[in-house]
Each structure stands twice: as C-alpha cells, then as structure tokens.
Amino acid sequence: MVALGDGKVIEEGNCFSSKEVIDSILKILRNVNFAVTSVSVKIGNGVPVYKELLKDLDDSLPPQVVLEVVGEAGTNKPLKENKRSRGVRHISSATRIAGRSGNIVPRRKLIAANGRI
Question: What pLDDT sits at residue 65?
Fold first, then answer.
C-alpha cells in the first residue's frame, strides 16, 4: 500500500489482509478535509482477490472517496537493490499503480445515499 499526496509518497507499507488495507487508509483519511481535497484509492487488477478488496473498500470507506481499478502490467519491475525483498518490490509496484489512471468504479454507498438503489 502506498499513499500519495501531491504526487509524493506520504505513507507506504505492506498489508496482508483487506482489514489491514482498510485500517491503513482510514487512518490516513482522518486528516483529510474532503471539502478541499479529492481522494482516489487505486487497486491493481493483477490478483484475483482485487474484486473482493474492492467490495470491502466500497463498504468501508467514506462515499467521497473515488475507487479506481488500475492495470498492473509492467509495474513489477526488478529492483537493482534488495532483489530478494518482496516487501520492497510490492511497495515499488504499489507506487507505480498509484501513479496511473484507472477505471473509476461506481460507489454503491454513493448510490444508496442518493436513494437510487
């Protein structure tokens, strides 16, 4: 998981469950003023569980958060240093994913709030 603010990494780490990802994002969002800041959460589509994670994020995050699915092709580039460290490689890939544009996923929570279910 990587969090970017104004194009710079503000937080990074390896998460091993949906709950850990969501808790990390919610911790970061505590300091966000949605009136002046837009927030996108981007999920790479390279693992089969991304759809389950997407549902969990939709259920747990504030409706102001935009969810995007991003293609992961080409994000897992070998690192010159720490070649054997999977954690560093995952963070590097997450940084590349965070910098890409993806497909915006309609939020069920937002639809429910507008009364269009």
Answer: 92
CB neighbour list of residue 44: distance below 8 Å, 6 or more residues apart: 50, 69, 70, 71, 72, 75, 93, 94, 97
Any idea where the domains of the chain sit in the sequence? 2-113
| Residue whose entry in the numeric block shows the structure tokens 């293609």 | 71
Rounded CA-CA distance 29/23 in Å is: 10
| 85: amino acid identity, one letter | S
pLDDT tens digits for 47-60?
778 889 999 999 99
User: How far is it, in rounded angstroms, from Cα 23 to Cα 60?
Assistant: 9
At 99, which amino acid appears? G
pLDDT in the model for residue 97: 75
